[in-house]
Amino acid sequence: MKGLLNFLKRIEPDKEKRPVLHTFYDAVFTFFFVPAHVTSGKGVHIRDGMNLKRLMVMVVLALQLCYLFGTYNIGHQHFLAIGQYTGFLEGIHLKLAFGLIQILPIFIVTHIVGLGIEIYYAAKRGHGVEEGFLVSGALIPLIMPPDIPLWILAVAVAFAVILGKEAFGGTGMNVFNIALLARAFVFFAYPTTISGDEVWVAGLESMQAGAAATYSWAHLSLFNPLFESLGWATFDPTASVIDGFTGATPLALAAKGGWDAVTQVYSPAAMWWGTIPGSVGETMKPFIIAGALFLALTKVASWRVMLGMLLGTIFTGMLLNAWSATPFMEVPWYYHLYMGSFWFAMAFMATDPVTAASTNVGKWIYGFFIGFFGLIIRVLNPAYPEGWMLAILFMNVWASLIDYMVLQRNIGRRMARAKQAST
Amino acid sequence: MDYVNIFLKSAFIENMVLAYFLGMCSYLAVSKSVKTAFGLGLAVIFVLGITMPINWVINHYLLSENGLLHIDLTFLRLILFIAVIASMVQLVEMVVEKFSPALYAALGIFLPLITVNCAILGGSLFMVSREYTFGESVAFGLGGGFGWFLAIVAIAAIRERIRYSNIPAPLRGLGIAFILTGLMGIAFMSLMGIDPAALAAAK
Hints:
The complex is a heterodimer of chains A (423) and B (203). Helix content of chain A is 61%, strand content 0%. Chain A is built from 15 helices and no strands. Chain B has 9 helices and no strands. The longest helix of chain B has 30 residues, at 34-63. Chain B starts with a helix and ends with a helix.
């Protein structure tokens, strides 16, 4: 560690002459070393190693399992479509290699664009980046379809970071969730790349039976010789999509034919364990719940929002069951927790401390209404297949007002108490 | 049930501000604090809810060819609608001045300017072009006003929250309010596409 410190000290760029480079340097430096601020005799502030950066690293840690399974599942879905290695552990090296080739460019582009803009603005303002993009940058690849064109991703990230965050004053000032804003941008500007049945399985010409699998240079010239030399199975460039594979997500099926249509294609166990098509990180429910528990126990994320959202969803699900006018409404409320990205949205999106309501009562209300609107949009809105992204953005609008009302009510109550005491 | 549908639709799904971007001037100018925004929002609900049925009656019985005069006077529509709106706003202004001088002072010129608030005239013209019945126009007026009220209160709360944010200097004030409105519009697109009437029919 001493050697690293000396090395980092030696290469420190000049802050005056190269502000952008220095900001980047500072970001890397504080990754390894806590700044040497300590509480002195003067002043009332307690300085602690638990700063914003370490808080955000917790979220990134909680996401790692999702990354692992997401990488695997990109490959798994691809091989299911072409009918090879359909078992869970069969051909796992191929699936992981395939997933890695898909997700790595997404991850890199997200960070180059997002972090680049972030560092530029932080340097202009003359303060550190504080890893403002660390969490957004980790979340964005997980909520995109695996086949997203990289230029669309870059435009979306730039939109979200510049208009959603930097315009509002940088880290901790944004009103809307950055990651969801990026996704909503893709969703409304380039809908064909993020909805429908065609986009959730990567590496295929189309979802028609007989369509060829498309492998790139990395598959055929990088990994194939490597696997061959190890005596493992290799990518088969002649593979094509098998009969009967549609690539439709459970929600797309449920919207058409209710729960029966879903179970004809996917078993509840497969939905729970995440071997279904979907956005990269949303499918594996137990890993997400583990991440949610980790965040709740370390108090990084608010359990009130999570529980409120769960209650809101259950309540709305029961309400829709009671109404049951369409097949989708008849889906039992507990099965709504199996489909789509409910858990991911609950654990990582709704709990964003910046955009959520910040009073305790407000958090319950905020969470509850996300659950309510999310399910309303999912079930009642034929235009959108899934509701959580839009429900959370919608409640971001109201979070400030909820806080305002809670505070006003509190002020009013205390005022009444004070008046009573004085008479 | 029909009236509830129209109310919900005009309040949330086809929000006057965030879907049609009507009534932006007072929406942006008075949304600096929640208290004044609340007052103006109530005034807009009242004016929309009152003028819509009055304009409906005028349009139906006076201006249309099947009305009492049996002459097609629809070219007078705009001018009569505005006259009704202006007189109603006068009424609101007097009431506010009498009962809440503080709010009257805070709203300033924007209270009489409700007269030319495009959401109000736009609402009346929507009512004509969508051929609402009397009851539907009441529901539409109240719903549209309620949606406008919600939008201005929401943006006022957000603007109170970001008042001390380190917003880039050129964007402070109106600039960030425009960006905010656009982003709120994206969020409100979440409900666009829901058709309460179709859902009620499915039952």
